[in-house]
Amino acid sequence: MIRAWLAPAMALLAAGCAASTAYRPPTTPVAPAWRAAPEAGAITIGPWWRAFGDPVLDRLIATALTENLDIEQALARVDQSRAAAAAAGAALLPSGTVDGQAARVRQSIETGLGRVSQYVPDFPRTVNQYQLTTGASWELDLAGGLRRGREAAGAEAQAAEAMGAQMRVTVAAEVADAYVRLRVLQQRRAIARGQRDSAQRILSLTEQRHRLGEAAARAVEQARANAAGAEADLLPIGAGIEAQLNRLAVLAGRAPQADRMGLDAEAAIPSAPLPGAGSPGDLLRRRPDLVAAERRLAASHARVGVALAEYYPRLSLSGLLGFQAQTAGRLLTGDANVIQGAVGLRWRLFDFKRLDAERDAAEGREREALAAYRQAVLRAAEEVENGYATLGARRTEVAVRTRETDAAGKARAMTDSAWNVGEISLFELIDAERTLLAARDRMALAQGEAALAAIACYRALGGQE
Known about the structure:
The protein is built from 10 helices and 4 strands; from the N terminus they run αααβαβααααββαα. By secondary structure, the chain is of the alpha+beta class. It has one domain (about 30-105, about 140-315, about 355-460): Outer membrane efflux proteins (OEP). Helix 2 crosses helix 5, helix 5 runs antiparallel to helix 8 and helix 9 packs antiparallel against helix 10. It is elongated. The model is unreliable at about 1-15 (pLDDT under 50).
């Protein structure tokens, strides 16, 4: 039985340090160019959010990148992974300790040497013990398992660093998203207030005409219902504004409602820029989450080497040098010195079934990491294509909505003149008013969606700072 296990073990030992192969980054096929992205335009250099030309947005993102607690957690994880990598590297080096002890011991006469002492005159039961030693040990990494462990820990640290960068991308994009949504809601609130004021004005005019006998009671009730509806439309918009203000506060690492950050005043919706896309190959280097996925794959490959190294014997050297004495005065004398050297061997010779299972598990994790990386590349390409397709449609929509709003404004002006001279009914006036305000509302929404699509593009491209 022993010989059956010994033959493959010796074969593995003869293989020496070939416990694993060197890591090679995977080749992932990508398209030569983006389908939906514009052909012109270089990749954005510097903080991408500055392309929106909004100093308030710049200030908010700068604050969030400094104070956000999700980023702080990511930085803490980076520190942890770096410490783990340092510890894995230290495992390749000799380790040493210095031990010192001073003790007073009373020997039991019921066990061991104490029982013998009963037959020795003047044998002391109570003695002092002094010890000062230094020891060192070193595991010889014959099969490369420790080196592979260091590689794995280093790759995992790089993955953590990349995910820290990804968290900064995420936070910056979240701040920009919340800011754009806030400005859209503020614009819509201004439009809704205009609709409410117009409805109140129409109600007053209708009530005045009713008192003069120029308008029916039904017209008054219709105007009153229109005014109430316009007032009600403001309520969800106000709630949405509060939600986005709270969201921005939390992203900036502050308590909701503790600081409005100067955002109460309405401002224009940022115009949507057109990000330069570069090539799909650039995406693999720009997106931190793809870098992290590739580094996790490298770590899983190194872990396979760690598992394979367990098939081989592990040798270690250790030594001890010091002094031991029963009196402090003789501790550092030549007669008290202690010297010890040892060679250690550890070989899981009869544990091959478990080793096979550990190797299979490590290889399975590597295959999973490879599939995860390739899937992440495909998902990233999908996000870029979808982002540019959406951005192109939204920019076109803004142009169309601009023409719609201009036409509705002209029609509203002509309708208002006709109402003042009594050429049209109240219902026609209300309808023209609603058409104009609805067009303005759709315009604000289109501008916001275009800006959000641009943010999504920058985020999909890796959001370089």
